[in-house]
Design a protein that fits this description.
single chain, 304 residues, alpha+beta, five-stranded antiparallel β-sheet, four-stranded antiparallel β-sheet, 8 helices, 12 strands, membrane
């Protein structure tokens, strides 16, 4: 029996976790994250998150283009807290969310498992409500140029970071080399267990908002193996304040089930993931739609 068949059978035979089963893990998670909030890192210590190379952060045009599909979602998702609901609004029932995301996780776990080579690219295409679109080829290992193209004909390049150096330009527009951080779009050591995933993210962030932002960011543009994506969905299902929104529409008008969260002090969901209610594939958000699900390609310009 091959690994794909075994994974499919396990996904079909494994029951979704009950609220009672999730409760101990959620309590341990909240205790750890509450400790982070009570004892924050000194202001002088930088927050460790997924970031583009230092020398390339001035390349605002590319980063803004990449961010079109997820900036609003990241901002709102980063505002939630991984703890109980605010006192001025009723508690959110977690069981339906955990059940729905558990099903989405089971579907994701049955997807074809691909471990990419370092010289390949993660291709994804998204569109806005106004019909504009953006496609990107993200370098798997971060040591090859990533490229973004938009519907208005622009093409932007995020240069590779090799041996700690990346290509940039000085104030006069002259090409120079400058120190950089490698920004891979595939993380082989990303845990495939929801509790371990959040613990992994917690170690890389000084607060819970960073954990929340990274949970969203990982689903947008990164290559996740089936078990990793399944863990990501289940991890989101452990966050207090998440709720389901039936008949939600993405930017393309496709109707699905929303997994929504609200900013502190608010009662109306502002941002959400929207899944196909039957296939449980991620469609996008009210602001964007996924035109092409992430896939691995051999070179920039290739789409399948």
């Amino acid at each position: 029996m091959d690994e794909t068949t075994l994974t499919r059978q396990l996904g079909e035979q494994t029951a979704l976790p009950s609220p009672e089963r999730l409760a101990p893990a959620r309590e341990r998670l909240l205790a750890e994250l509450t400790a982070d909030l009570t004892h924050p890192e000194p202001a002088s210590q930088p927050q460790r998150t997924f970031r583009a190379p230092r020398a390339l952060r001035s390349r605002n045009s590319f980063r803004l283009a990449v961010a079109v599909a997820s900036a609003a979602a990241v901002a709102a998702f980063g505002a939630i807290a991984l703890r109980g609901p605010a006192p001025d609004r009723p508690p959110v029932a977690m069981a339906p969310v955990a059940e729905f995301l558990g099903t989405a996780a089971a579907v994701a776990a049955r997807d074809r498992d691909v471990t990419p080579r370092g010289d390949q690219f993660v291709y994804v295409k998204t569109a806005g409500a106004d019909g504009t679109w953006f496609e990107q080829w993200n370098s798997v290992d971060g040591e090859h140029d990533s490229v973004g193209r938009s519907s208005d004909g622009r093409e932007e390049v995020l240069p590779a970071c090799v041996d700690g150096l990346g290509k940039s330009t000085d104030s006069a527009g002259k090409a120079v080399s400058a120190p950089c951080d490698v920004h891979p779009w595939f993380l082989p050591d990303l845990p495939a267990d929801p509790e371990a995933l959040i613990a992994w993210l917690t170690k890389r962030n000084s607060n819970v908002n960073g954990v929340a932002k990274d949970l969203w960011s990982l689903a947008d543009g990164y290559w996740l193996r089936p078990a990793q994506r399944a863990a990501l969905y289940r991890a989101v299902g452990m966050v207090d304040g998440i709720s389901l929104v039936p008949s939600a529409e993405d930017a393309a008008g496709r109707v699905g089930t929303g997994v929504a969260w609200v900013s502190p002090g608010r009662s109306v969901p502002e941002v959400m993931w929207i899944f196909d209610a039957e296939t449980h594939l991620l469609l996008g958000s009210p602001a964007t739609s996924v035109v092409t699900q992430p896939r691995i390609v051999d070179e920039v310009g290739e789409r399948s």
